[in-house]
Specification:
Layout (H helix, E strand, L loop, with lengths): L6 E4 L3 E3 L11 H4 L4 E8 L2 E2 L2 H14 L7 H14 L5 E11 L3 E10 L4 H7 L1 E7 L18 H12 L4 E5 L5 E3 L4 E6 L2 E5 L9 H12 L3 E5 L3 H5 L3 E6 L3 E8 L2 E2 L4 H13 L6
Parallel strand pairs: 7-8, 7-14, 11-12
Antiparallel strand pairs: 1-2, 1-6, 3-4, 3-5, 5-6, 8-9, 10-11, 10-13, 13-14, 14-15
Length: 280
């Protein structure tokens, strides 16, 4: 079921009706999926790592051939939308789309509730299945870019569900581990956490970056590189990371059950503390 947003604002215009149409039918962002977006978590009314997400929005816009987003106006739009939303724990989406003449590019800030399936999934752990996704070898498939053309990512998630899992882990044709459709992937070998290198064309996850910094405090080393799927499947523990799902334990990969949650639990606590989340 689609849950409608709580509040929305258009950059340079201010608050708008969150369920009114905000994009013209001939805007390429709608018509051809050529627009950039960001999804971030809001804790206690404050968006977590907003500046870093605005930087990534700019990088995605460059790759998509869009003009630079107006970060100031997007920041303001996020602020007014958040002030209007009736919750301080939320998901904030920022869109940057080419728009139509004479207005030109359009920035939109959308505030939604945190999906209620996440905490039960965290308690259970997610089952992953590996699916091929050869984006790394084809730069025209926009590696590392967060564009609204996410239909293939959603299709991968649906295929994973069709195969009896909860989500996918995407691997290149040679079996190199990449990322999830909307997450980065991690695993633990002893006291070392491994995650694929950004050079593989995966998205530079903001949560991935934060966990990288928090891992040492939690007593883990981090190693990035190019790893075969067998290495992930043989790991003692696997988890995913994303702004919305935070640190999500994995209960099974390709049918192999994983019981350990120690690193995922420690990093989830550390992440929420770093984000200023109120867990009292
Ligand atoms: C393909 C992909 N990888 C990784 C991530 C995780 O990124 P972040 O931690 O910035 O949410 C996302 C988030 O949407 C994603 O779409």
């Amino acid at each position: 079921m689609t849950v409608r947003p709580l509040a929305a604002a258009v950059a340079g215009q201010g608050l708008v009706d969150p369920i009114a149409p905000l994009v013209a039918a001939d805007d390429e962002g709608f018509a051809r999926g050529r627009a950039a977006f960001e999804t971030l978590r809001v804790y206690g009314g404050t968006p977590f790592r907003l500046e870093e997400h605005l930087d990534r929005l700019r990088a995605s816009s460059v790759r998509l051939g869009l003009p630079d987003p107006d970060s100031g106006e997007l920041r303001d739009a996020a602020q007014v939308a958040l002030a209007c939303a009736a919750t301080k724990e939320a998901v904030l989406r920022l869109y940057w789309t080419p728009g139509v003449p004479p207005e030109g590019p359009r920035g939109i800030a959308l505030v939604s509730a945190v999906p209620d399936w996440i905490e039960p999934a965290r308690a259970r752990g997610q089952r992953l299945v590996s699916l091929a996704y050869p984006r790394r070898s084809a730069p025209w498939l926009l590696p590392g870019t967060k564009s609204v053309s996410y239909a293939t990512h959603i299709a991968a998630e649906s295929e994973a569900k069709r195969r009896g899992a909860d989500d996918a882990v995407l691997v290149d044709l040679d079996g190199t581990v990449l990322e999830g459709p909307v997450t980065n992937i991690w695993w633990r070998e002893g006291r070392t956490l491994l995650t694929p290198s950004l050079e593989l064309g995966i998205l530079a996850g903001e949560t991935r970056a934060v966990l990288h910094d928090l891992a040492a405090e939690a007593g883990y080393d981090v190693e990035t590189g190019t790893y075969p799927l067998e290495r992930l499947v043989a790991a003692g523990e696997v988890f995913t990371s994303s702004s919305v799902r935070e640190v999500m334990p994995v209960a099974a990969v390709d049918g192999r059950t994983l019981a350990s949650r120690e690193a995922a639990a420690a990093l989830q606590t550390a992440l929420r503390r770093a984000a200023g989340a109120d867990d009292s």
